[in-house]
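WARN retry 2 of 3 for item q-0093 after timeout on previous attempt; input resubmitted unchanged.
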Amino acid sequence: MSKVVIVTGAFGVLGHAVAAAFLANGDRVATVDLATEPPPGVAAQLNGALMVEGCDLTAPEQASAAVKSVLDRFGRIDAVVNIAGGFVWETLADGSAETWDRLYAMNVRTCANMCRAALPALIEARGSIVNVGAAGALKAAAGMGAYAASKSGVHRLTEALAEEQKGKVRVNAVLPSILDTPRNRADMPKADPAAWVAPVELTAVILFLTSDAASAVTGALIPVTGRV
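OK item q-0093 returned
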Protein backbone atom coordinates (compact mmCIF):
# COMPACT_ATOMS: atom_id res chain seq x y z
CA MET A 1 0.00 0.00 0.00
CA SER A 2 1.27 3.46 -0.84
CA LYS A 3 2.32 5.75 2.00
CA VAL A 4 1.64 9.41 2.70
CA VAL A 5 5.00 11.05 3.34
CA ILE A 6 5.95 14.56 4.47
CA VAL A 7 9.40 15.73 3.37
CA THR A 8 10.66 18.98 4.92
CA GLY A 9 13.35 21.07 3.27
CA ALA A 10 12.02 19.51 0.09
CA PHE A 11 13.30 22.12 -2.36
CA GLY A 12 16.96 21.52 -1.50
CA VAL A 13 19.23 19.03 -3.22
CA LEU A 14 18.64 16.17 -0.79
CA GLY A 15 15.03 17.11 -0.10
CA HIS A 16 13.84 17.00 -3.66
CA ALA A 17 15.81 13.79 -4.32
CA VAL A 18 14.03 12.13 -1.42
CA ALA A 19 10.61 13.49 -2.38
CA ALA A 20 11.07 12.43 -6.02
CA ALA A 21 12.09 8.93 -4.93
CA PHE A 22 8.94 8.50 -2.85
CA LEU A 23 6.83 9.75 -5.77
CA ALA A 24 8.55 7.28 -8.09
CA ASN A 25 7.75 4.57 -5.54
CA GLY A 26 4.04 5.36 -5.91
CA ASP A 27 3.71 7.15 -2.59
CA ARG A 28 1.75 10.34 -1.97
CA VAL A 29 4.09 13.14 -0.96
CA ALA A 30 3.77 16.52 0.71
CA THR A 31 6.78 18.79 0.25
CA VAL A 32 7.29 21.43 2.95
CA ASP A 33 9.77 24.26 2.47
CA LEU A 34 10.50 27.79 3.65
CA ALA A 35 10.91 28.93 0.04
CA THR A 36 7.81 30.26 -1.69
CA GLU A 37 8.54 28.29 -4.86
CA PRO A 38 10.91 25.50 -5.91
CA PRO A 39 14.11 26.30 -7.82
CA PRO A 40 14.03 26.04 -11.64
CA GLY A 41 13.74 22.42 -12.73
CA VAL A 42 12.71 21.09 -9.33
CA ALA A 43 8.96 21.56 -9.75
CA ALA A 44 8.90 19.08 -12.64
CA GLN A 45 10.61 16.46 -10.46
CA LEU A 46 7.97 16.98 -7.78
CA ASN A 47 4.99 16.76 -10.10
CA GLY A 48 2.05 15.32 -8.19
CA ALA A 49 3.25 16.36 -4.74
CA LEU A 50 1.28 18.60 -2.42
CA MET A 51 3.54 21.64 -2.07
CA VAL A 52 3.35 23.50 1.25
CA GLU A 53 5.41 26.58 0.46
CA GLY A 54 6.62 29.49 2.57
CA CYS A 55 6.39 27.38 5.74
CA ASP A 56 8.65 28.46 8.61
CA LEU A 57 9.01 25.33 10.73
CA THR A 58 10.75 27.23 13.51
CA ALA A 59 7.20 28.37 14.37
CA PRO A 60 5.09 25.57 15.93
CA GLU A 61 1.86 26.97 14.54
CA GLN A 62 3.20 26.81 10.98
CA ALA A 63 4.25 23.19 11.46
CA SER A 64 0.74 22.43 12.71
CA ALA A 65 -0.79 24.22 9.73
CA ALA A 66 1.38 22.20 7.34
CA VAL A 67 0.25 18.95 8.95
CA LYS A 68 -3.39 20.06 8.73
CA SER A 69 -2.94 20.73 5.00
CA VAL A 70 -1.59 17.23 4.51
CA LEU A 71 -4.40 15.61 6.49
CA ASP A 72 -7.01 17.66 4.64
CA ARG A 73 -5.59 16.45 1.33
CA PHE A 74 -4.62 12.84 2.06
CA GLY A 75 -6.40 11.91 5.28
CA ARG A 76 -3.38 10.29 6.93
CA ILE A 77 0.38 10.55 7.48
CA ASP A 78 2.60 7.47 7.41
CA ALA A 79 6.08 8.99 7.48
CA VAL A 80 7.89 12.26 8.10
CA VAL A 81 11.40 12.92 6.80
CA ASN A 82 12.96 15.96 8.49
CA ILE A 83 15.57 17.42 6.13
CA ALA A 84 15.01 21.14 6.75
CA GLY A 85 18.08 22.73 8.32
CA GLY A 86 21.20 24.74 7.68
CA PHE A 87 24.96 24.97 8.02
CA VAL A 88 27.41 27.69 9.01
CA TRP A 89 31.20 27.31 9.29
CA GLU A 90 32.36 29.65 12.03
CA THR A 91 34.98 29.45 14.76
CA LEU A 92 33.93 30.28 18.29
CA ALA A 93 36.52 33.07 18.61
CA ASP A 94 35.45 34.84 15.43
CA GLY A 95 31.75 33.96 15.55
CA SER A 96 28.69 35.13 17.40
CA ALA A 97 26.09 33.82 19.82
CA GLU A 98 23.48 34.55 17.16
CA THR A 99 24.91 31.77 14.97
CA TRP A 100 24.38 29.24 17.75
CA ASP A 101 20.79 30.37 18.23
CA ARG A 102 20.11 30.39 14.49
CA LEU A 103 21.47 26.90 13.87
CA TYR A 104 19.61 25.51 16.86
CA ALA A 105 16.40 26.97 15.44
CA MET A 106 17.10 25.75 11.90
CA ASN A 107 18.21 22.23 12.79
CA VAL A 108 16.60 21.28 16.11
CA ARG A 109 13.48 23.39 16.43
CA THR A 110 12.24 22.70 12.90
CA CYS A 111 12.61 18.98 13.52
CA ALA A 112 10.96 19.04 16.94
CA ASN A 113 8.05 21.17 15.74
CA MET A 114 7.27 18.91 12.79
CA CYS A 115 7.60 15.75 14.88
CA ARG A 116 5.24 17.14 17.53
CA ALA A 117 2.69 18.35 15.01
CA ALA A 118 2.61 15.06 13.10
CA LEU A 119 2.71 12.68 16.10
CA PRO A 120 -1.05 12.12 16.51
CA ALA A 121 -1.43 11.12 12.86
CA LEU A 122 1.75 9.03 12.93
CA ILE A 123 0.57 7.18 16.05
CA GLU A 124 -2.73 6.42 14.34
CA ALA A 125 -0.90 5.08 11.29
CA ARG A 126 1.87 3.36 13.31
CA GLY A 127 4.21 5.34 11.12
CA SER A 128 7.82 6.44 11.14
CA ILE A 129 10.08 9.46 11.37
CA VAL A 130 13.51 9.84 9.79
CA ASN A 131 15.62 12.79 10.88
CA VAL A 132 18.79 13.99 9.19
CA GLY A 133 21.62 14.35 11.66
CA ALA A 134 25.30 14.59 10.79
CA ALA A 135 28.38 12.42 11.10
CA GLY A 136 30.22 15.66 11.90
CA ALA A 137 28.27 15.89 15.15
CA LEU A 138 29.95 12.73 16.45
CA LYS A 139 33.39 14.41 16.35
CA ALA A 140 33.30 18.11 15.59
CA ALA A 141 36.01 19.69 13.47
CA ALA A 142 37.27 23.26 13.72
CA GLY A 143 34.62 25.79 12.80
CA MET A 144 31.87 23.20 13.25
CA GLY A 145 30.95 23.90 16.88
CA ALA A 146 27.54 25.51 16.40
CA TYR A 147 26.54 23.16 13.59
CA ALA A 148 27.72 20.02 15.39
CA ALA A 149 26.00 21.07 18.61
CA SER A 150 22.71 21.60 16.80
CA LYS A 151 22.92 18.31 14.93
CA SER A 152 23.83 16.54 18.16
CA GLY A 153 20.54 17.95 19.41
CA VAL A 154 18.81 16.21 16.50
CA HIS A 155 20.49 12.95 17.52
CA ARG A 156 19.33 13.24 21.13
CA LEU A 157 15.83 14.25 20.02
CA THR A 158 15.71 11.14 17.83
CA GLU A 159 16.75 8.85 20.68
CA ALA A 160 14.37 10.41 23.22
CA LEU A 161 11.39 10.40 20.88
CA ALA A 162 12.07 6.79 19.88
CA GLU A 163 11.91 5.80 23.55
CA GLU A 164 8.77 7.85 24.16
CA GLN A 165 6.95 6.36 21.16
CA LYS A 166 8.33 2.80 21.24
CA GLY A 167 5.75 0.41 19.83
CA LYS A 168 3.78 3.27 18.31
CA VAL A 169 6.07 5.31 15.99
CA ARG A 170 9.53 4.37 14.77
CA VAL A 171 12.06 7.21 14.98
CA ASN A 172 15.52 7.01 13.42
CA ALA A 173 18.18 9.33 12.04
CA VAL A 174 20.70 9.17 9.22
CA LEU A 175 24.11 10.72 9.80
CA PRO A 176 25.69 11.68 6.47
CA SER A 177 29.22 12.96 6.02
CA ILE A 178 29.73 15.38 3.11
CA LEU A 179 26.93 15.33 0.55
CA ASP A 180 27.86 15.67 -3.09
CA THR A 181 26.05 18.90 -3.92
CA PRO A 182 26.88 21.81 -6.25
CA ARG A 183 27.36 24.06 -3.21
CA ASN A 184 29.82 21.69 -1.54
CA ARG A 185 31.76 21.27 -4.78
CA ALA A 186 32.02 25.05 -5.10
CA ASP A 187 33.07 25.49 -1.46
CA MET A 188 35.66 22.69 -1.57
CA PRO A 189 37.12 22.76 -5.10
CA LYS A 190 40.24 20.77 -4.14
CA ALA A 191 38.34 17.91 -2.51
CA ASP A 192 37.47 14.63 -4.23
CA PRO A 193 33.65 14.44 -4.46
CA ALA A 194 33.90 10.77 -5.40
CA ALA A 195 34.52 10.13 -1.70
CA TRP A 196 31.37 11.96 -0.65
CA VAL A 197 27.80 10.69 -0.26
CA ALA A 198 25.61 11.09 -3.33
CA PRO A 199 22.04 12.23 -2.55
CA VAL A 200 20.71 9.06 -4.18
CA GLU A 201 22.76 6.95 -1.75
CA LEU A 202 21.38 8.70 1.31
CA THR A 203 17.90 8.61 -0.19
CA ALA A 204 18.05 4.81 -0.41
CA VAL A 205 18.75 4.55 3.33
CA ILE A 206 15.91 6.95 4.15
CA LEU A 207 13.44 4.98 2.03
CA PHE A 208 14.54 1.78 3.76
CA LEU A 209 13.94 3.27 7.20
CA THR A 210 10.36 4.21 6.28
CA SER A 211 9.65 0.78 4.80
CA ASP A 212 8.19 -2.34 6.40
CA ALA A 213 11.60 -3.94 6.02
CA ALA A 214 12.81 -1.66 8.84
CA SER A 215 9.87 -2.48 11.13
CA ALA A 216 12.22 -3.56 13.95
CA VAL A 217 14.49 -0.50 13.73
CA THR A 218 13.93 2.45 16.04
CA GLY A 219 16.20 4.82 17.94
CA ALA A 220 19.03 4.16 15.50
CA LEU A 221 21.60 6.76 14.42
CA ILE A 222 22.89 5.37 11.15
CA PRO A 223 26.17 6.75 9.74
CA VAL A 224 26.08 7.18 5.96
CA THR A 225 29.61 8.36 5.35
CA GLY A 226 30.51 7.18 1.85
CA ARG A 227 34.23 6.87 1.29
CA VAL A 228 35.26 9.72 3.60
